[in-house]
## 1
Amino acid sequence: MTRVTRRNVLKSGTALVGGMAGILATGRAPAFAQGTTVHWLRWNDFVPASDQLLRKELLPAAEKTLGIKINFETVNGNDLQPRITSAIQSGAGPDIIMLFNNHPQIYSESVVDLSELGSSMGNAEDGYYDLCKSNTVDGQKFIALPWTIVGAMIAYRKSWFDEVGSPTFPDTWEKYREVGKKLKAMGRPIGQTLGHTFGDAPTFSYPYMWSWGGSEIEKDGKTVKINKKEVVDSVKFMTAFWKEAHDEGGLAWDDTNNNRAFLSQTICATLNGASIYIESLRNPDKYITEKGAQLKTDIQHAPLPKGPAGQFAMHTFFSHVIPNYSKNQAGAKEFLKWIHTKANYEPWFVSQKGFATPPTHAWEKHKLWDEDKVMAPFKVAGLLGQTPGYPLSSSGKKPAEVLTKYIITDMYAKAVQGMAAEDAVKWAEGELTKVYA
Amino acid sequence: MAIAETQVYMPQAPRPRLRLLEDERWLAFLLLVPTLVLLGMFIAYPFVRGILLSVTNSRVGVPGEFVGLANFYKIFNDGIFRTSVYNTFVYTGVTTVFKLALGLWLAMLLNRNFRGKTFTRAFILLPFIIPTVLSTFAWKWMFDPTFSVLNWLLYHFGLITGRINWLGDPDLAMISIIIVNIWRGVPFFAISLLAGLQTISPELSEAAAIDGAKPWQRFWHITWPLLLPVTMVVVLFSVIQTFADFQIVFVMTGGGPANATHLFATYAYQIGIGTGLLSEGAAISLAMFPILFLVVIIQLLYIRRVEVR
């Protein structure tokens, strides 16, 4: 038996410290699993069948074809940004990361140029929608590869709207408010988040502001002119609209709360992707209306109503970036090229059942859009959407900063919490001025 | 009796390097090295790195340039930062008072003899043992705007007629996170103070009782003064932890609604990690340091005074 002596312990300890010193001196952690493994980080899809399809069919096929190993990881959507920030700062992490909206702009210096792939894919599929380029091109190059658009439409209960004398969905904010008032009086409020969450909050607050004639920045990209009558009016309207017609718990909602509230039939309408309807299709006997019908038969979709300045939309946009630190950039690019090939992308697109609209025009002709009329509005979601920073043509770093600070959403949230409309707009003006200074 | 052949053990002369370790001073230093390395790697390095970041205009992936105190100037003119400072003080102050009061009360109860004492003592530690994120998610569900079980109970007991907007109302959201922090922190106070109580000789209290002292007088004149040093240490730890709290607020409200419940840590996280403005995030984090440092110094001085009394 080896004797443990003080000297032995000291020698071992010195060796350990020496080893650590070696790691510190080289400035690198020991390399594990480097080579042909591509680590792909995505959100937990709101259509779980799509993640299953990727795991069980598409990724094994990609591994076989490309000869690489794919490490597939999914996280909550709101956790993608913390992951990429820490990965870039530490210089290690996933090789492909999914991001939302204009978030890639925040990381433009730290991601690989994907122009070759982006251009060839766009050209092959009749071109990208404008919103895709606005979010993924930093003015010169593709910093992210457009993946999909989750169209934001109002899912509403057709029979409940009929009951209050609105056989078609209200096409203006005033009409929507009137109908919503009646529905809330019946215990069926509108559900809308004004919380800090990536999807449903900005896809409501931005187009709402635009429809009243407001914008976070003027066309010159320098002048902040949000503090004007149109925006103050929009805030005043929202405050009353909220109280009269909304579920006031929406201030604390994330992107999942409205799905649960709608499916449990506590709200009459909510701005969302098609995930509510798709869930009702997936489990038709689980969701039954008070009249005994399947809930799926009572759901319709409509765009956001018009305001004094017109009708606007902003959809949640998805793209992928390859960080500069990746040791497997070639493998990552090859994989993205493979998954975007029509034969491989199509099964994924079909599994989404219209929840996701592809980023290029070519897919408008796909037969999926003719299968279910309830999903028809999502077919052209890409044509209608604007991006944060509108009317700027590129949704760059500053609009991304505004978006991630939730300034526009908070302007409305502060007002519905009791702040005077003028003060809420003034607060937003101050915050925007600091960003665009 | 046979005389065994004996061998005389002649140790080899130690090599000079190891001989150095026979010196207690060098040995003490060497034994301290692992601790120093760990402290350096996990406390000193991040702290210094944080200071360096805070005086640059670094963003995620961009090293940035030296900008002096510009970030601090910026955050001190930031309304959300001021709200975070206010919230942090309210959060720390209110929770510490409640945790101390409830923890002390619980410790006094647990210091008595009753059947199932050991089980009860272990049981009350549960909130402290369960991972904070997990228990906070459970609380989030209990305060859910639509499906709150608390609302359901209150409604079915006829105490409310409509839903309470726990996490959607700024004041109620603050109260909600304070409740969760108290729930989680009370066991730490209770167990630590219980340990303190067990060091106090029961004879003192018995003697006072014979002399006619009432329970409250026995507590105030005997138990409390003897428990004070332990209490101060427990309060010190709790203040430090609560001041820098992150998990409860991040999970429950994410700093919302509309930034109404941000604390130093959550706001630093939103700016540094969410928006990628690392230097501003570092400045927000560091802004809590002088305040915390001052609180710690005052408390330590007070503890010293109590101990030498």
## 2
Amino acid sequence: MTDNLRQLIRSCLAGDQQAMLDLVNRFKGQVFGLCYRMLGHREDAEDAAQEAFARALRNLHSWDSEREFEPWLLAIAGNRCRTALSRRMRRPPPRSLNEPVASRTPDLQAAKQLTEEVNLALSSLRDQYREAFILFHQHELSYAEIAEAMQCPIGTVRTWIHRARRELIRHLQAREVVETRYAV
Amino acid sequence: MLCDEFEARLNDVLDARQSPEQDLELQRHAHQCTACQAQLHALTCLLDGLELSEDPPLPDDFAWRIVEQACQNRRPFRPRAVQLAALAIAATLLLATLPFGWVVFGPSPQITGSARQIDAPPSDAVASAKPPETSIEDPDDSQSGWLVPSSSILELYPAEARQRHREQVTQLADDLRPIATPFNAAMAAIRRTIPQRSSSSKGQPRASLQPHRSTQNIS
């Protein structure tokens, strides 16, 4: 962890609001990204991310400075997402993830369709599989960091990620996404 | 390579954050096996989709709202040891005073049911305790219970009972005396667990990066 981040957190602990703003701005992409992929709903993800940051700021003194900050923060965000998902179980199912997606490829329609299919496949996974997969492939956390964030053994994380890959591949094949794109 | 080994190797390559397209063994098998080739293409598709997907933009005031919320709900840091010590003191004081409260306010063998009914004390005791000129007649006597006006208490508190209660309190104090030393030692031990704070940092948020897992949990 960089000294810059340590200094930023030290300032947050001293009550510096500008430092808190900087800290949130620095990690809001990662936290919101995880919440968005976990919940598949923009407003819910925004609420979960906000709640996760607020809790993290309130409990900064309990963070172990010997450890990485990002897994700790993402662990809080993951907990908030799981709470939101369990709360959602008692409500009617939300509409599917259909937010507009920007694309860097010339074929906007194909890119949009592909990301929607991937998001749909992700939403079909078990919560733990999805969280572990996203933390590994999108946030590029190591197995050890994911295990710490999800409070489970490394072997379990590895199993979850492998199963997530297999299920996602099967889901995409079943939806014929691969055939239309690659014409195997 | 067999098909069974293909998936395992694919996972190994991905776990090492390498590209499956650059792994010759995987490519060689994929060219020979249609099912594994489809699997590899699906995986490439998945990774492309992940890379292409972007999160919707957050509102401009997102960070500010969080800081505002965090600062509003910010409570002064109070170590759990202090809270536990306060609870321990309160519980000890309650337990220590409970017998006194029982002696003073608890049901006495002299007073049962209504506060005005005295259970057949010796006649000479009644004669000595009851002032002749005091009237304690009350039409709502039976409903008054323990809520007796204070001026009447002494009238209902015979000298013999008073003397016996005084002896009981004295006896209780003698009984509690051996407990006092270990109690003081326990209180000193609790005080030692409370972290000392300098006067300059009093009332300010803790600026230390040291972990305090033992004293504060993440809610």
## 3
Amino acid sequence: MQTVSLNVYLLVAGALFVCGIVCMASKRNAIGVLMGVELVLNGANLNFVAFARYTKLGLDGQVMSLFVIVLAAAEAAIALAIALNFYNNHLTIDVDRANELQG
Amino acid sequence: MKELFSWLLEYGPFSVFALAAVGGAVAVVLTQNVVRMAFWLIISLGAVAGLFFSLNADFVGSAQLLIYVGGTLVLLIFGVMLTASGPFAVKSNSGQLVPAAIAGALLLAVIVYTAYQVSWEDQSSFDPRGAVIHGHNSPQDGNTTRPLGQSFLGARPDKDLGRKDGGLTPGYLLPFEIISVHLLVVLVGAAYLARTKKRKA
């Protein structure tokens, strides 16, 4: 039976990861930076699940990807709270203006 | 004919989901409007959930749909709405786009070159004759919900059944507890951080 090889999944995951990195580095909107973080975590997650399917890693990879999903939700909640606080204090969401953050 | 059908069944969904995932991610990078970025991110993350399903990870795919697409992205969209001041677009510096694209392409080339250098066949759980290696009752057939739940409770029948030396594989009970406390701390911390403060005059 034909199967998609592991390398193709790694290619897709690498593309997601690189898009996330570029997004984190180039966006000036703090929410955009958060979206880049989500993309990076998804690329890593796709790697975990692909290795769980194709190698001896087995179920451990899926467990790790579940941990990553939960931690990403927690990270998004905290980062969003910080972004809201920053917006309340500075009336902007531009990360270039965040050079003094003493509340 | 049967060959063609099986090939289509394997590669068709995969290529659709992979294209949607990568295309959505590229669109997130290229779009300047935050609301549209959120929309493309929904496309991309939903397609990644589809890739999880095609990797036979049914529970992880559902969790991705429920938590990421249903939870985290709604949170992000609320963040966009609560921090919107006038136009949604905070323009990136367009002079940075070309260096960013070049650096990203180089990074992708390094990652792909490295991944293709490694011979993953040595790590494969498949016997060359097609049988699954003994003692490793792998999640290749899907239906992973029950094994995942058992491994979170510390029992690993997927690794321990049929093991020759009769040993036990550690499960994930302690990390599970740590994650639970972590989520509680995050809940309290987010509520503390996001509350409206009275400004001192």
